[in-house]
Amino acid sequence: MAEVEIGIGKSGRRAYGFDDIAIVPSRRTRDPEDVDITWEIDAFKFDIPLMASAMDGVVSPATAIEIGRLGGVGVLNLEGLWTRYEDPEPYLREIASLDPDKATARMQQIYSEEIKPELITERIKEIKSAGVVTCASVTPQRTKSFMKAILAAELDMLVIQGTVVSAEHVSKTSEPLNLKSFIRELEIPVIVGGCASYQAALHLMRTGAVGVLVGVGPGNACTTRGVLGIGVPQATAIADAAGARMRHLDETGVYVHVIADGGLSKGGDVAKAIACGADAVMMGSPLASAYEAPGHGYHWGMATFHPTLPRGTRVKTEQRGTLKEILLGPAHENDGRLNLFGALRTSMATCGYETLKEFQKAEVMVAPALQTEGKALQQSQKVGMGH
Amino acid sequence: MAEVEIGIGKSGRRAYGFDDIAIVPSRRTRDPEDVDITWEIDAFKFDIPLMASAMDGVVSPATAIEIGRLGGVGVLNLEGLWTRYEDPEPYLREIASLDPDKATARMQQIYSEEIKPELITERIKEIKSAGVVTCASVTPQRTKSFMKAILAAELDMLVIQGTVVSAEHVSKTSEPLNLKSFIRELEIPVIVGGCASYQAALHLMRTGAVGVLVGVGPGNACTTRGVLGIGVPQATAIADAAGARMRHLDETGVYVHVIADGGLSKGGDVAKAIACGADAVMMGSPLASAYEAPGHGYHWGMATFHPTLPRGTRVKTEQRGTLKEILLGPAHENDGRLNLFGALRTSMATCGYETLKEFQKAEVMVAPALQTEGKALQQSQKVGMGH
Amino acid sequence: MAEVEIGIGKSGRRAYGFDDIAIVPSRRTRDPEDVDITWEIDAFKFDIPLMASAMDGVVSPATAIEIGRLGGVGVLNLEGLWTRYEDPEPYLREIASLDPDKATARMQQIYSEEIKPELITERIKEIKSAGVVTCASVTPQRTKSFMKAILAAELDMLVIQGTVVSAEHVSKTSEPLNLKSFIRELEIPVIVGGCASYQAALHLMRTGAVGVLVGVGPGNACTTRGVLGIGVPQATAIADAAGARMRHLDETGVYVHVIADGGLSKGGDVAKAIACGADAVMMGSPLASAYEAPGHGYHWGMATFHPTLPRGTRVKTEQRGTLKEILLGPAHENDGRLNLFGALRTSMATCGYETLKEFQKAEVMVAPALQTEGKALQQSQKVGMGH
Amino acid sequence: MAEVEIGIGKSGRRAYGFDDIAIVPSRRTRDPEDVDITWEIDAFKFDIPLMASAMDGVVSPATAIEIGRLGGVGVLNLEGLWTRYEDPEPYLREIASLDPDKATARMQQIYSEEIKPELITERIKEIKSAGVVTCASVTPQRTKSFMKAILAAELDMLVIQGTVVSAEHVSKTSEPLNLKSFIRELEIPVIVGGCASYQAALHLMRTGAVGVLVGVGPGNACTTRGVLGIGVPQATAIADAAGARMRHLDETGVYVHVIADGGLSKGGDVAKAIACGADAVMMGSPLASAYEAPGHGYHWGMATFHPTLPRGTRVKTEQRGTLKEILLGPAHENDGRLNLFGALRTSMATCGYETLKEFQKAEVMVAPALQTEGKALQQSQKVGMGH
C-alpha cells in the first residue's frame, strides 16, 4: 500500500474511480454466446449479477417482480413509502411534481408517516407470490423491530444497509444491533453494507454475512462526499474489498460476495466493477430511467429526506426504455445506458473471458476518461442539438 | 518529503487541496449524539470549533454576538468599516449596490477614511456586553498603535493577521513589529497568521501565540494565487502546520492550535480540515450567505481595496439561511452548505471518532472530487433548471 | 512496467493519450523540404503514411482513388453500403438527414440489406482501374466467405478488422478464422487489428500480417469505452505495440508495421503517433470533413448500427476543405485540422529529424494539454463569437 | 531526471506549466519598497525585467519608446508591418476589423508585401532618438540580408528568433546561418531563441548569445502544440534552461540570461517564471491589452499568416488600461492582469526575497490551480454577469 504525502503530518493512498480506469483486451477473444454471466449467492442463482437498489423511485413490488423475471433481484426498501402507505402512488406522483425549492421539505413530511409492520409482510408476500427471489432492506437501527414482520413473509434474502454500516457500532445511549450474533442466528442469508475499505469489509465479512455492499459516496443521487467529506472512489473500494474477501476466504474457507453498490451508470461501469473484483453490482439510478420505474422519472436516496442533514438529492432521470431494454437490450442508443448486461457479456467476450470469476482478473489501466471518451459524447450531443 | 522534479534546475513537493482528498470510514461507527466537537483554546471553550473571519461582510458586532451565542467566535476586523465609520450601514449598502466596473475604485475611497481608536474600544465593548468571548483582528503594521484602544476594551483574544505574516519581517525603513517580544509581553492571548508551511508555522508558534492561522491564497474571495503566484492548497498547508505543532510541542511542551483559515465551503471541507490536523476552522464566505450577514449578499477580503494591487474580489453570495441554520441546522438543502457543524458531527460519527483530536487521525485518500461528486450536483442542477 | 495500486486486490499501469503528451524539440533543426515522410509497406510505397479508415462516410471508391492520388491509401469497407447497394448515394443522403432520435434504428434497417459478392469485386476493380493501390477491409467472421470475390478483383492489400481482433478467437459453436494459417496461405498482404497491448500486438504479428492496427476505443465516433469499459489511450497503445514490433523483429527478422488507428484529429496527433512509435496512421474522422467525403458532413463507425448493442455514434462534421487541403494543404485555418501531413513534415523539421523511422525516437514529455493549448483555442473562439 | 513509462517502447519526463505550480512563502517577509527588481544584461540595465514580444499588435516604434521609458525594453519585429509599409496603420486597422473567416487569408496577403531595408533603419532610429535602449528581432533565415540596415541604425540589442531556433540547423539546399560564428563576430549583443530543453538551451548559450528565449508553444496566440504536437510547458522549460545556464557558467564563466518567452498572463505568472529560474520575461499578449497597443484590441503571432501552415491565431484582447497601469499600476482590477511588476515586487516581498537572483531559489509546489483559483474567478464573473 503505497502512500503519498499530503503534508508533513498526513499521508494517504491514491484512490481511483471507474472513470479513472479502463479494461485492456487480452490476446484472446471469444464468442459472446459462450460467456457465462450467471451469479450464484447462497442458495440462489441469478441470470445476471444484478441487485436493484432499495430506492423508492426504483424498486416497487411490481418492478421487483419484473427485475426478478429478467434474471436479477430487486431489493425493496422496508423503510420507504411502500411500508408507510397503503397506496404510495399519489405520493410518488407528488414527489415527481414538486418544485425543487420545496422538494426536500415536503419529502421530509411525506416520510414522517410511520412504518406499518403489516405492510412489510404484505409487500414481501406480493413479490413472493410471483415466484421470484425476494429481497428487502432495513437499517441496522430498525432491524430488530421489523424482524417479526419480515420473517412472517418468509423473505429470501435480507439486506442490512446504511450510508456506512460497521461491524462495531458504538453508542452510549442504546444497545446497538450486534451484527455478528444477529446474522449468525438468523435463518435468512444477510447482505450488509455499505463499506469502503479493506478493514471495514473484512469485519463485515466476519459477521457471517453472505455478501457486503461496497460503496460510500459514489451514488448518482448521493452528496455524502460534499456534505460529510467522506467517500472512496469505487474502483479502489471494490479492489480493497476483494482483497478482504481473499483474506477472509483464507482464514475461514467461506467466500463472501463483494457487491459494488453505486456509481455505475453505463455498461462499461458494470464491466469495470467486475474487473476490479466485484461479484455483482447494485444499481439504482440506471434503472430509475425505465418506463416501469415507480419514480415517474425521478429517484432519490434514503438520506434525501434526513430531518436535519439531508445528504442526497432528488434526481430527474430521462426515461430511456423498458427494464428489459435497460438490462438485456436491445439498445437503440449508443451511450452505454441500455443493454447493460449485454454490454457486460460483450466486454467479457471481447477480452476473452468466460466467467465473472475469470473476468475479475482482467487487466486494467489507469486512464482518465475525460478526453478520450468526451470527444465522442460531445460530438454526439452536437448532433442532437443541431436538429 | 518526496519532491518531484519540475525541471533540471527546480524541484518541489506535490500539494493537495480539500477537493483532492476524501475521508475514509474506519471499521467502527458511532452515534452522532456521542460525538464531542467542543474546542478549547487558552482559557476559552467553544461549543463548535469555529472562528468567523474578520471580513466586513461577515462579522459585525451584531453577528459576532450571534456567532458567540451559537457556540463559535466572531473576529471583528479593527481596520474595517466598523472602526472607520460611526454608522457603516450606508456604506455596506452602497458596496452591495456598486456596479462591478466601479466597485474596486469606490471601495478604495470608502476605505480611505481614517480608523478611529475610540470606535475600536466601543465596538469591542458592544460585543463584550452581550457576554460572549470577544475577538478582533489587526495587521502587524498597525498593532502597536491600536493596542491602547484594544486594551481599554478588555478584549479576550487578539488576532494579528495579514495575507502572509512571518515571525521575521525585514524592513530597511521602519522598525517592524517584533512578534516574539510583543506577544510574550501582552496579557491577551494572540492568534497569528496567515502562514502555509512547516517552517513558517513553526516560527510563528515560537512567538508565544496560542494559535496560528493556516492558509495563504485558498479563500473564496481571494485572488492571491493569480496576482502573486503564491498559494498552498489547504490540505497540505494544514498537514504541514500540524507537523510543526508536533515539533513545537516536543520542543516546548506547549500545544499551539492550528486554525484552518479559508477555502472551506461545505461541511465536508470542515471535516477534511480537522482530518488533516486542524484544531478549528476560520470561515468567512459560508457565513456571508446568512440572512444576518452585514454584507447584504456580498463579501470581500481586506486586500480587495488595496490602493495599487488589489488581490481580492467582492463576491456575490446567495443568501441561504440563518446563521443558526448554516452552523447548526437544520438543513433544507443537500449541498453541504447548511448545518456545517452537524455535518462535522455526523462525519465523525460515521467514521467512528469521538473527539476532534481523535478525528485528526482519520484515514484520508487522495481522490480528486471532480467526477464522483460532480455527477450528483450536475443532476441536481438539472432538476432546478427543469422547472 | 511500473504498476500503480488501484486497490489491495488490483493494480494496473498508467496509460497516456495523445493529449497527455507533447514532443520536445531537439538541439537540431532542419529544412522541411529535406524531410522524408514516405512510407513503404510490403511492395507498396506511399508519399504519406496514411490509411483512410474503412468508414462509409469517409471512403467511397471515388475518395479511395483521390486519397491514393494524394499519396495515401483509402480502405474500402467491404461490409458497408458500397457492397450492399448498387447505388448507395440515396442511403448516404438519408443517413445525413436522419433525426438523431431515429438515426440508430433506421441505420440498423439500412445495414440489414445483404452484402453482394459481385459488388465487392466491382468496387475494388473500380478503384484499381484508376491506377492506385487498392485496399479493403472485412471482419474476421466474414473473411472466408468473401475471399473469392476479393481475389477476383485482384485486391492489393487486405485489412482484417474488428473492434478487437485477436490471434486466438475461441468459439464453442463455430470454427473461427485461423488467422495464422489463413494469412500465411494468402497471396495478398494482410493488415490486421485492432489491438491495444504488447501481447495482443505480438500475437497478431506472429500471424504473418504485414501490419497491425493499434487502437481500441480512441476513435472520434466510437463509444466502446463507455459501453464496454474497454479502451487503451493511444500513446500507450502505440508504444506498447512498438515494443512488440521490436521483439518480433528480434525473434524473426521480420518488421511488422504499427499503424495507429483512431483518435487522431490534428496534425500534432499525427506527429505524436509517429513519435510514440507508429509507422503510419489510419484516420477517418478528419477526412470526413472533406467536401468530397461520401458522408455529406456525417460519419459513423461500423459498430454504430449493431442490432443489440450499438457502440458508435453518427457524428456531424464541419466541412473544412478539400481532401487535398486536409492532407497536403495549404491551410487557411490555424487549428491543426488542415494540411495534416505538411504539419507532420514541419514537426519533424522543427525537431531536426529526417525520416519517420528517426522521428520514432523523438523525445516526448508527459504534459497534459488542457491548459496550455486551451487558452489559444478559447480566445480564438471568442473572436469567432464576437462577430 | 525521473522518467515515466508511456508504453513499453517509450518513456518521457513529466512536464509542468505555470498553472501547475505555486510559490510557497518562506518564514521571512519583507517591505515591498526594499525589493530590487532591476535587470542587467550586457551593458544595459532595466528597471523591470521585461522584454515586450516582437508582435505587430504589441510593439510599434511608439510603444517601444513608451515601454523603454517605463523601465523595460520593446522588441520591434523587423519582418512585420513596420518594415513592409511606410504607414502600417491602415493595415493594423483592417486586421482588427476582419471577419474571423477571412482573417487568415487576408493577413497572408498583407504580409506578402516585401520588407524594405530602409524602413528597418528608419524604425530603429526612430526609437533610438527617444533615448531608450533599442531592440529588434529577425528570423535566422533573414538575419544576414538585413544586417547592413540594422547596423546602419546602430541597434543596441538584436533578437534572432523563430518558433524553434537551434544552434545546428541542417539544410541540403542552402547554407544556413552559422549562429556560433555569426554571433561571436557581431558587435551587437544577441538574444536567441526559442528553445525549450536543457540541450537546446545549452547549445544556444555556446553560440555566444547574451540571452536565450525559452518557450515553444506556450504563447496565448500560439497553436503550435495542436498543429505540430510540439511544446514544453513553461515551468519545466525554464527550469531546464536554468540548469543549462548553470552548466554553461561552470564551463565558461559566462552567465547567459534565461528569458521566459510566452505563456504569461498575470502577475503571478511573472513571479513563477522568476521562481523557476528565469532572469527576465518576454510578454506579448498582456501588453496587447493596453490602450496604446498598435493592434487596436487584437494581437497575433508571426506564424499566424504562414502561407501553407498557419500556427497562430489572431486573438481579440480586452483593452484593460494604459501600458503604465499594466506594467507598474495602479491596478483597478483584482485579476492579476494590471500592475504586473508591482505584483512581482509584492510577491518577492511576501516571500521575503530581495533580488531576482535570490527569488530564483524560492520554494515552489506542484499544485494545479484549477480548483483553488477557479472559485474566486468564477464568483467574480458571476458578479459581473449579475448586473
From TrEMBL, chains A, B, C, D:
<keyword id="KW-0560">Oxidoreductase</keyword>
<protein>
    <submittedName>
        <fullName>IMP dehydrogenase</fullName>
    </submittedName>
</protein>
<dbReference type="GO" id="GO:0006183">
    <property type="term" value="P:GTP biosynthetic process"/>
</dbReference>
<comment type="similarity">
    <text>Belongs to the IMPDH/GMPR family.</text>
</comment>
<dbReference type="Pfam" id="PF00478">
    <property type="entry name" value="IMPDH"/>
</dbReference>
<dbReference type="InterPro" id="IPR013785">
    <property type="entry name" value="Aldolase_TIM"/>
</dbReference>
<dbReference type="GO" id="GO:0003938">
    <property type="term" value="F:IMP dehydrogenase activity"/>
</dbReference>
<dbReference type="InterPro" id="IPR005992">
    <property type="entry name" value="IMP_DH-rel2"/>
</dbReference>
<dbReference type="InterPro" id="IPR001093">
    <property type="entry name" value="IMP_DH_GMPRt"/>
</dbReference>
<keyword id="KW-0520">NAD</keyword>
<feature type="domain" description="IMP dehydrogenase/GMP reductase">
    <location>
        <begin position="15"/>
        <end position="361"/>
    </location>
</feature>
<dbReference type="InterPro" id="IPR005990">
    <property type="entry name" value="IMP_DH"/>
</dbReference>
